[in-house]
Structure formats: structure tokens, C-alpha cells
Amino acid sequence: MEMIAAMLMAGASWMGLDAKQGRPAQPAPAPAPAAAASGAAWQLVCPPAPTPSPTPAPAQACSLVQNLVAGEQKQRLLTVVLQRTAQSGHNMTIALPHGVYFPAGVSLQVDDGAQKPLAVQTSDQNGAYTGTAIDATLLAAMRAGKTFKIGFTAGNGQRIIVPVTLQDFPAGLTALDKTPLPPAPPAAPAAPSTAPTPPAPKR
Prior knowledge:
Strand content: 25-35%
Distance between the termini: 63 Å
Number of helices: 3
Order of helices and strands: HEEEEEEEEEHEEH
Structural class: mainly beta
Helix content: 10-25%
Shape: extended
């Protein structure tokens, strides 16, 4: 989450909210066409190698990222981050702008396929967040698809569908899957048994 937050350090949201105060600045405009950041649509982002130390920090996972901006001011619209872990395979985190109406949730859809509903999970000074594990079916659809549609509702009730291009996604996913996995967290110690010890048999 810290890496995602670092990528979201932008000004006020395009949805007309004061990012510092968290209140409407003016009525929300209709969204401008979204554009991917310069370069490849999906970019592999890896943290710098840790510096040698007596107690080195555990390795951090690389991420496959698409950051979308909107309007002439190139304000952040949303950020999609795909990671892989040894425990749950591929996970996706979506960073949404300020002003999202939480009860309406978020929808994911590849091209004209079935929609996958998600709940908005949390928020901070950079926006709102949702995330989900990506199973093999959805991952295959994203590999073969053209557009990944992310839907959410603004505070004024306007339903917004953001088309995220899947161009470069297959190549980016292949590159991500070649990166080393971070070590699995240590297993929690087993809780001591609370069952009473049966009495020894009488002789």
C-alpha cells in the first residue's frame, strides 16, 4: 500500500473534491477521456534493491501498474496495480479518486463479459481503494481482452465507467511472473491445547 500511495501523490481530484479538506469544491464535471501514462500502458515497477545491512529487510514484490490521467491538467483518474504472492497468486488493487460513493461499490468487466462486483474497502488522503484476488478465469480474459472496464459511482450519483486498455498486458504479465516472489510470512505458532489432561487409569 505504501508504494501505491507514493504513486498517487497528486493534487485535488478531477471529481471536484478538495483533496486536503475532503469536501466538494464545485459540482463534479463529466469525466474527460482517460489516457495512459507515457510509454507502455502497463509498466513493471520494482522497488530498489535493499542496501546491505546486518538485518536486511525482506524483499518487496514487483508490481504491474497502469496509471490513468484525465483532462488537460493530467490529473490522476485511477491506478491499477497487479501483484503476485506465494500465498494467493495474483492480487489486484485499484486506487480510485476522491468522491466515490462507497455503497454503490465498484464493478470490473473485461470487454462485454460478466461484471465482477467489489466493495470499496478503505480510503485515505489519496483516494479510495478496492482490491481482489485475480483467479485464472479473469486472468485469462484479461490476457485475451482489449478493454478492462472499471465502474464506480460519484458522490453526485453519476455512474462512471473507465476503460483501461489491456494493450501490453500479456507482455507485462509475463514479465511480472518472471520476477522473484517475496518470502512468505512466517507461520503463526500453534496455540497451546486447552483440553484437560485425562486422569491416569487406576491400577
